Amino acid sequence: MMHKYKYNEAKNCLVDKHIAFIGDSRIRQLFYSFVKIINPQFKEEGNKHENIPFEDKIASVKVDFLWHPEVNGSMKQCIKVWAEDSVAKPHVIVAGAATWSIKIHNGSNEALSQYKMNITSIAPLLEKLAKTSDVYWVLQDPVYEDLLSENRKMITNEKIDAYNEAAVSVLNSSTRNSKSHVKMFSVSKLIAQETIMESLDGLHLPESSRETSAMILMNVYCNKILKPVDGSCCQPRPPLTLMQKLAACFFTLSIVGYLIFYIIYRNAHRKNKPCTDLESGEEKKNIINTPVSPLEILLQSLCKLGLIMAYFYMCDRANLFMKENKFYTHSTFFIPIIYILVLGVFYNENTKETKVLNREQTDEWKGWMQLVILIYHISGASTFLPVYMHVRVLVAAYLFQTGYGHFSYFWVKGDFGIHRVCQVLFRLNFLVVVLCIVMDRPYQFYYFVPLVTVWFMVIYVTLALWPQIIQKKANGSCFWHFGLLLKLAFLLLCICFLAYSQGAFEKIFSLWPLSKCFELKGNVYEWWFRWRLDRYVVFHGMLFAFTYLTLQKRQILSEGKGEPLFSNKISNVLLFISVVSFLTYSIWASSCKNKAECNELHPSVSVVQILAFILIRNIPGYARSVYSSFFAWFGKISLELFTCQYHIWLAADTRGILVLIPGNPMLNIIVSTFIFVCVAHEISQITNDLAQIIIPKDNSSLLKRLACIAAFFCGLLILSSIQDKSRY
């Protein structure tokens, strides 16, 4: 993966550095493109066959181009001065030349022999420089012979290959019994093989290609200094943190413990094997099948989780697998969308109940939304604004379901017990907490889980605080309905206050220990931005749930199988309004000018398309009666899919794509997707199993477990503080 350096990043990396480019017109091209990363306003002017200096005095960056079009005594003298001067030598030297030698000597074999002799005399000097500086020898790019002018016709690709072979053979064998320190910069040659046909003269690369070469050169030098996440080249593997080492020990012990338990259990099972009655020839059953013990479930789950976390680490932290940049095209996004839509429609079944937003339907909704979001991420479709705005609605719809689902549960069940709260919090956060430790990432990095967690707590506090108003209590009097609406109005007031008071919001979430959860890169701005982007939609979900459940209780809705939700006339009118509203939002989203303007309006208008979809999906009786089992299956593991994609499907913290099988993109995506989905499903099972063990229903046992969990998190905070100090 190649990180695209901005000028301020480049200056940060190259502060107090001197970079020298020495060679012919092709090296001059590379010099210009390199300098333009540092100063985009730099113009290509002056005598092309002379030295060209560049200096940024504020950043103390100096970049020079030295005109030496042939590998001869002149170039050797320049390099010799650097090699013998211990003070003034450049930090980076980029050298290369050959085409002038071919042109001047008409491509003769004698010129090639002389080139080899000259580069042999320069090699020890370059090797000496490479011990203290970064030295790169640029291999010659191929040419497009059909476009070459008459005085360059002797520069053939055959000759260029011969000169490259000479340079490689000499420079790689310049040191005995050790590897050469001079690095071969061959990427420009590889780029030229694909793009030289776009050249204006057949010799020099088009501007976009040389910009890529310069950016790769910047990556080669700066990645090890600035360590950008999306620059996978030339970085050392990050050292293991204390928490990662402790996690590795814990999972290793869990695996060993499970193996010991399994061996002991198997031996005990063999001893109790049914024996054959010799007289009757029948087996005597000595034992009854015993249920699986909680200890076995615990050890087995931790064993599987340990192996899965090892895979996560290898994929996105160990530099074991390659990664590649995303490149968006309409086909890479829309073709997979059509494909999964066809699959989803093909696998349809009848629902168990025909209520609005029944369980199968909400699972289906989560499923297809999650699949669209996954395709959106892997295709890099965030660069296409209409797609970005529609995916923002999908994220909002997930939060809408959070408001709808949790409000409905508390309103109907009236269960505000601590067991329910702990179960939900555990299921939401277990995987993310483990990933924070194993992958050394802050909690806010997995932004969606903190978002859903905070909104769940907001819903719980809103409804649990005095006076607790639930459906059973409110049935007798409209007064209680009014009381609940007042609660919701107060919640809306608080949301509006925090949305337009960034200072107050940041003060609240900058308090320790909240800051440890919600800070990213030293501040809570990212958290404020994420929260503010969908600030009203959970409230809309709660209000919709209250309205729907009230109408349902008063038997205003017709939810029988095959029946429209309202009378035919009202149903047709609402369906028409819903379709128009849905399309109107899509037209508006497609005509947005920029993300900032769209994001400002999004919190207020996203509910339009969400409600339109719900009505279109639920007003016709036949639509409520069926669901896609394909989408519903993915919906049940949607949270795990969203979280796991960060490291084992995408890569470099979602900025790139994981490459398990290089050179075959289609096979790679099939294999990595299969593993990714299997892992997400397995983690869902592990989370459910551990939730039953760690969050028991008995209150006294639960309180003891909560005390242990609190001690665990206190330990994490202490270890995190120790790590932060050591990093600082």
UniProtKB/TrEMBL annotation:
Bilayer-spanning residue ranges: 246-265, 297-315, 327-347, 367-400, 421-439, 445-466, 478-500, 533-551, 572-589, 601-619, 657-681, 702-722
One term under GO cellular component: Golgi membrane
Keywords per UniProt: Acyltransferase, Glycoprotein, Golgi apparatus, Membrane, Transferase, Transmembrane, Transmembrane helix
Origin: domain of life: Eukaryota
Signal peptide stretch: none
The Cas1p 10 TM acyl transferase domain, residue ranges: 227-706
Any GO BP: carbohydrate metabolic process
Molecular-function GO terms, alphabetical: N-acetylneuraminate 9-O-acetyltransferase activity
Enzyme class: transferase
InterPro entries found in the cross-reference section: Cas1_AcylTrans_dom
Location of this chain's protein in the cell: Golgi apparatus membrane
Membrane topology designation: Multi-pass membrane protein
Enzyme Commission designation: 2.3.1.45
Catalysed reaction equations from the record: CMP-N-acetyl-beta-neuraminate + acetyl-CoA = CMP-N-acetyl-7-O-acetyl-beta-neuraminate + CoA; CMP-N-acetyl-beta-neuraminate + acetyl-CoA = CMP-N-acetyl-9-O-acetyl-beta-neuraminate + CoA; a ganglioside GD3 (d18:1(4E)) + acetyl-CoA = a ganglioside Ac-O-7-GD3(d18:1(4E)) + CoA
Entry similarity comment: Belongs to the PC-esterase family. CASD1 subfamily.
Name of the protein this chain belongs to: N-acetylneuraminate (7)9-O-acetyltransferase
Organism: Myotis brandtii
